[in-house]
Structure formats: C-alpha cells, structure tokens
Amino acid sequence: MNVGITDFESIIKAGYANIAGIVVMQAGEKVYEGYFDGHTAEDTIHIASVTKSIVSTLIGIAKDKGYIESIDQKVLEFFPDYKIKRGEKTIQHVTIKHMLTMTAPYKYKSEPYTKVYTSEDWTKAALDFLGGKRAIGVFKYSTIGIQILSGILTNATGQPVLDFATENLFKPLGIKAPHNTNVNCKEEYFALLKDRHVQGWVVDPKGTNTAGWGLTLTPRDMAKIGQLYLSAGNWNGKKLLSSQWIKDSIQENSRWGELPYGYLWWIVGNKEDGCYAALGDGGNVIFVSTKQNMVVAIASRFMPRAKNRIELIEKHIVPLFIDNH
Q: Which residue numbers delimit the Beta-lactamase-related domain (predicted)?
C-alpha cells in the first residue's frame, strides 16, 4: 500500500472515529475501499439525510416513467382524499418542485418530529404542517416535510416506495434491497442510531417508507448511486435515470445561506469543478466531482457535530487519488 494511503488512513483513524467505510471511484473504476473500527464491506449504515437524495432519484425515475407528469404538479393532486383545513390557501399552491428544492412553507418554527413520528400516518401528519402564512419559495430545510414525497411516490406509482425502488434502482444497480423496519418511539429511534448492525428502511405504521431519513446502505451501494449520476443515468448499458433529470437536480434551484441546493442534492465546492453531494447527519456523504470524474462515498455511524466531510474529501481524498491515477 502506498505511503499516501497509509497516511490518509491514519488521519481517518485519528480524527474521524465514526467513519465506518469509504469507497472512491475514479473514471468508473474503484480505486480505494477501506473499512474502519471493525466494520466490513457487508455492513449497512443508517445514511440519515442521504435518504433524501435517494428519494429525489426515485421521483426522477417516476417522472421518466410517466407516473408523475411534471414536478410543477400540485402536491395535493396526489392526495385527493386529504381534507384541507378551513381558510387554508397556501397548501393548495405547493408543488413537487417546492418539496424537492426545500422551498415549501410550513406551520412550525422547529420541526415537530415527535408529533409526526408518533402518528399513524406520517405523510398525512406532514401534510397537516404544510402551508400556513409563510411565503412559498423561501428555503426552509425540512425533514418531516420530505415525507410527503414518499406519499406522492406511493400514490403515483401504485407501489410501496421500497418495491418501486427495488425494481427500478436497487436491483439494476446490484444493491441488496433492504427490508422494512419499524421505529415506533423516540427510544427506538435512538437505538437505531446507535446500532452497529442496523439494517432496513424505516416505515410508518401504514407501511410507507421514510423519505427524509431511515434508509440503510453500504458504502459500495452509496458509491453506485454517485456513479449513476456521474454516468448521466446509465448503468451497464441501461438508462435508469434521464440525464435531464440529473442536470436539473444538480444545478442551483434554491440556496441556504452560502450553500446552493438542487433537488435534494447540495452543490458544493467551486462551481467550475461541478461538485455536488448527498449529505447526512454524522458525516454520511455521496460526493460527485464532474471535473475529476470521481465519486467518494463515506458511511459514518451517528455522532453529533461530526467533522466536515467535504473538507476531508477536498483536502485529503481528491488530491491523493488524482495524483495516483
């Protein structure tokens, strides 16, 4: 093993104790795969908000297949039985695009996780918080709100999200489909975060998969998602996702402070490098660099205030493998 990689792994062990695994792809080839703290290639990790970017991918596939006509469709078109509260107007104008770009308004100051995740129907509970008096079009990062996209996928395709994902994304990519798993209370949620052997995709009591968190994947699986995007939606000679969807997903559609945001993907680094990433709590990331033709997947166990992974990638990983290739 070359000295650069040995030094890099020492940096991980010394300063990034919660990293479970890293996979680096360059020009479609795997150039590095490493596991830490007793983890192996087979171990799945809860990828936290990286789940959002996977759900964005599924919305794109559903649109490509005609289940969704346009992302400018109103959210409520997919919930004909939902009863709008008296005097509520804003919710009627929220579109799928507003959900994808985090520019939908909500009736809360801080996310009502407990209220939503202890309800019987998390999608309906999220819909109850959508709208209100705030303006549409202003960036507001919402994990509970994104749950609505799972409801849209289910109602548009007529399939559970996991079945649709397995058939159209996981199976074609050679990703072992997760099983459904339940989280019924705060204690079970924290148990999931701490579990070194966590598996599955969380569902609500109705059986609808989570959209904002709750999916588990291996670092290899995460790298495959990144490679699919880098390859313009092509995989083993098949078109799994349209290049137009990817192009739209990774350009600035909204902004949180200094960070541009696409369709549940963050645009990171210098604009000319064409870098974007799926980011999740604890330091989970799928990083794609168009300029360097590189994908970096990092799976991490949960820890509060994890060190900046983009900084790690740009400072230590990209230079190491660009120089070695």
A: 20-309
